[in-house]
Each structure stands twice: as C-alpha cells, then as structure tokens.
Inverse folding.
C-alpha cells in the first residue's frame, strides 16, 4: 500500500496560516528547503504549525526555539538483547522522522492498515499539523553497564551528579536508561509522539517516569520574548541562544576531543524537577521577591537597571552602602561571571501536577539544561545555588536526571545511537 498523505500536507496550509497570523512565530526552517532534510539549527522563522527539520548535524530540540509544550519520558530497557535494543532505536528513529514532519508514526497510519490488526499509529493526532514537534533522545549512565557491552563507551561527563545540599530526590522519578524529550506547540502532538514511541517499544522498554510541561521558562532564540516562571519572574534572560555560535561551540556542543567519538556534536542534558511552595511565595512582599531574584518583577531588569537586557552591575550599592544585588541573590549566584564562565542552555517548563492532598498545588519548574560537560558547568553552578541561594526557602529539588544526547541523525540510513552501538 502506498504511503498515506501526511497530516502536514492535508491540514498544514490552513492551520499554518491561522497560526502565523494569530500566534506569532517560533519554529525554525530554512526557506525553500525540504523540511525533513534541512539543518535543524538553520535560522528562519516559520509558523507555529510548521515542521522542524529532523536530520542534521545536531539533534533538533536543543537550540530549536523553545516550543510551548513538553512531554518528557525516561525509559528503562527491559530486554537484555543488544540486537533488540538496536532494532528498537532504528524503529524509533523512523517513527520520529515521520512524526516530526506531521505524519503518522507508521506507514499505514491510524486507519490505513489491516482491520484485523492493531493500527501502527494511535490516531489522536489525526488532522493536526506538525506543530513544531521535535524529538530528542539521550542515554543515561545506567545504560552503560554490562548488559549491552557499552561500559567502555561511557563518557566521563556522564558520571553521576553529586548530591547537592537540600536535595529531596525521589528515585522513582529520577534517572533512566533512555530519555526522549518531545516539544511541540500543541500538547496533543507532543503526547501523541511519546505514546507512540512507548507503544513501539513494548516488551523492550518500559516507562520509568514522565513529565508534562507547559509555558516554556526560557528562550533559546533572540526571536522569542523572555517567558515567566510560576513565581511571576522573567526566566532565562541570559540564556545561551542559537545565534551565539561561538558560545555554543565552547559551552554546548561536545567535541571529538572531549571523550568518546560517538558524542561528537552532541550535548549533555541535566533534568531537575523543582517543586515550588507557591502558596508561601505568594505571601512574600514584592520587595523581598525582587531581592531574592535580583531583578525587577515587571520589566525583568537587574536591580539598578531599567531594561531586561541591561548589563548587570554587581558593584552597585543601596542607600545603606550594601550591595544592591545581594551576595545570595539568585541572579548573582547563577551568573557565569561567578562560576568560572560556565553557561547553560536552558529549556525548562512550568508544571502543575494537581495537588499534594494537603490543600497545596504540586507545581513548579521542570528544569532542563544542555551543556558540553555537566561537571564543569551545571555542578559548580548548582553547588553555588544550593548552598546559599535565597530562593531555596521556596523550592525543593525532587528529581534528577543526566543524559548523553548524541549528535544528529544525518539521513534516512542513520538512526539514534548508531555510532554508540557501532
């Protein structure tokens, strides 16, 4: 049977027109190039409903302008057969390449196969455009044991993170052998992608934990406005941006000389689920909130400045001769000038997971940050924050993950993890 016409072709033109006119622009695509083969880091703004290229030097979903919705999942591998795991990664890659272009997960789709057999797509995204979907895969340290002969290929950068002061980590929502990050501008498209990967992986992987996110908490391109976190502050003003090519080479992308060759062009992802005690925060005076962050809540300007992107002057004093931006303010402790130049590319999302049964929202930030080496970047920054950050009174880290995300899939003959398992 010939391949079904894609959702993108059927519905994309109308939906893209509406989105572009009414919702602005965020996803990337190169004008005039085929969406499935252009570089995912190419810079051209396209409509909210458009497809982000899947093939390229780097995986999409890292410097891609951050979409509005997230479904993140960590899998445990339950097969002990290396060949089955490799086959799964091949099947996942083929499905990911299709879904990111607005197509069904499998050739016959949700309704085009044999009636007596289960469909090869779950069907809840029928009629929806690609919605800027990106799928990014990473491998956790637990995958590099003696099950699949990968121990010698484990990067030094994938060594376990230390336990930080104040951590209250729950093992059932931490770690994992493989992660997949699905970002899209439609939550149903993101959930559909993860659901189908889990369906394809049945018997070979099982879901360890997953997280839904909404309202991105950082911008990864200067074409995007800075969003706000659930504490009401602009978040990620000084984030690395895709336009910072030299900084990305220095701070984001792993080089061949850094470690195993299979990670060249990749990046390391740290995830942290950070619960906020929003009820307590909401009763804090505005002056205290601004002192904690070191920024104005309205404009997002550093204290002493007027605009969000004004240079931060840590030497300014208040009327009493004390530092205007306190020594334990979040902005000072997290700034690269106080951490040996270490910077991160953040792609976090807000979350609300219902209530805790005690009349409080279970809400906060699902922090995600990509970097070249987490032990030179995330670890020193987080140690600084965990020890003295004023914000610690209102937050608690409840989950943690570290994943090695290899370089991009080059073409249809390539697949996730090919260089690792070669």
């Amino acid at each position: 049977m010939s391949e079904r016409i894609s959702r993108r072709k059927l519905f994309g033109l109308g939906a893209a027109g509406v989105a572009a006119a009414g919702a602005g622009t965020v996803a990337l695509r190169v004008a005039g190039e085929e969406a499935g083969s252009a570089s995912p880091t190419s810079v051209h703004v396209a409509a909210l409903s458009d497809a982000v290229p899947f093939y390229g030097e780097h995986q999409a979903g890292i410097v891609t302008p951050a979409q509005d919705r997230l479904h993140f999942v960590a899998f445990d591998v339950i097969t002990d057969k290396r060949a089955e795991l490799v086959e799964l990664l091949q099947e996942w890659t083929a499905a990911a390449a299709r879904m990111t272009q607005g197509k069904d997960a499998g050739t016959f789709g949700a309704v085009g196969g044999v009636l007596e057999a289960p469909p090869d797509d779950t069907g809840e995204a029928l009629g929806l455009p690609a919605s800027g979907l990106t799928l990014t895969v990473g491998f956790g340290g637990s995958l590099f044991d003696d099950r699949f002969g990968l121990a010698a290929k484990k990067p030094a950068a994938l060594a376990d993170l230390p336990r930080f002061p104040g951590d209250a980590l729950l093992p059932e929502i931490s770690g994992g052998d493989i992660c997949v990050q699905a970002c899209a501008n439609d939550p149903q498209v993101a959930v559909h992608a993860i659901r189908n990967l889990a369906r394809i992986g049945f018997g070979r992987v099982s879901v360890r934990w997953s997280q839904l996110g909404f309202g991105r908490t950082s911008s990864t391109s200067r074409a995007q406005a800075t969003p706000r976190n659930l504490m009401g502050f602009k978040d990620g003003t000084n984030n690395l941006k895709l336009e910072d090519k030299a900084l990305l080479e220095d701070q984001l992308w792993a080089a061949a000389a850094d470690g195993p060759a299979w990670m060249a062009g990749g990046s390391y992802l740290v995830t942290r689920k950070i619960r906020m005690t929003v009820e307590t925060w909401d009763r804090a005076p505005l002056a205290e909130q601004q002192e904690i962050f070191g920024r104005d809540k309205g404009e997002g300007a550093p204290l002493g400045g007027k605009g969000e992107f004004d240079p931060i002057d840590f030497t300014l004093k208040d009327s009493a001769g004390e530092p205007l931006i306190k020594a334990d303010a979040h902005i000072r402790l997290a700034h690269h000038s106080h951490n040996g130049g270490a910077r991160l590319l953040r792609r976090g999302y807000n979350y609300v997971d219902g209530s805790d049964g005690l009349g409080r929202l279970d809400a906060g930030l699902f922090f995600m940050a990509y970097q070249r080496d987490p032990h030179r970047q995330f670890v020193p920054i987080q140690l600084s924050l965990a020890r003295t950050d004023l914000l610690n009174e209102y937050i608690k880290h409840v989950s943690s993950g570290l994943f090695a995300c290899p370089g991009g899939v080059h073409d249809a003959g390539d697949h996730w993890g090919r260089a690792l398992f070669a």
Q: What stands out?
A: Confidence is low (pLDDT under 50) at residues 1-45. DSSP finds nine helices and eleven strands in the chain.
